[in-house]
Amino acid sequence: MRGKSQPTFYKGSKAMKRRILNLSLVASCFVFWVIVLFNLTVIGEEAMELKIKSSAFNEGNMIPKKYTCDGTNVSPPLAWEGAPANAKSLALISDDPDAPVGTWVHWVIYNIPPTIKELPENIPPHKNIENGAQQGTNDFRMIGYGGPCPPRGIHRYYFKLYALDTMLDSQPGLTKAQLVKAMEGHILAQGQLMGRYQR
Predict the structure, then answer these.
(1) What is the pTM of this model?
(2) Looking at domain 47-197, which CATH architecture does it have?
(3) Contact 145, 123 (CB under 8 A)
């Protein structure tokens, strides 16, 4: 006995369900990749890297005495590239993780305009500098740069650069801890340069 054929409207309903299911799968895949790309470009600081260098010393090499407490104690020249197009400002922190009392902060500078690609040698110890940036307070309790001055052994000195998606609504004189707090959720990219010094 032959079975009864299904009504046309029923067949059409099944086809519609298949189309809806396919569209749902496509939409789900689209949303997934949008989330992945968003994480890579906005949240994923590891996905974007700034390249920072100095004409005074190479990565891992000794920092010349000129830029330390044993010399004229001026800030070294720094240059960088790779800042994202949507960066609104840059910030720099220089510190020594090998200090006997814990990480010692040598330099805090922020609200550097994103069009700036370098800091020349000998940035003056002013709260506001000519390029529009602001300087914070280092662990010598001074504004601006304080060079390496290790009590003993070879110490590492990091110059950490951050690209931010905002200009910080902050006054000059921030400490490293205050700057790190202000940067939370705003870092687009970062990079670092490390030099060494021994007295």
Answers:
(1) 0.77
(2) Alpha-Beta Complex (3.90)
(3) yes
Q: What is the torsion angle, in degrees rounded to the nearest 10, for the CA atoms of residue 137, residue 95, residue 110 and residue 68?
A: 70
In sequence order, the β-bridge partners of residue 51 are 81
Q: Please, which pLDDT band fits residue 48 given cuts at 50, 70 and 90?
A: confident
Domain ranges of the chain: 1-43, 47-197
pLDDT tens-digit profile of 70-102?
999 999 999 999 999 999 999 999 999 999 999
Element containing residue 10 per DSSP (H, E):
helix 8-38
Q: Which residue in this structure is represented by tokens 């992945």?
A: 36
For residues 113 and 83, the answer to whether their CB atoms sit within 8 Å is: no
Residue 178 structure tokens? 């205050």
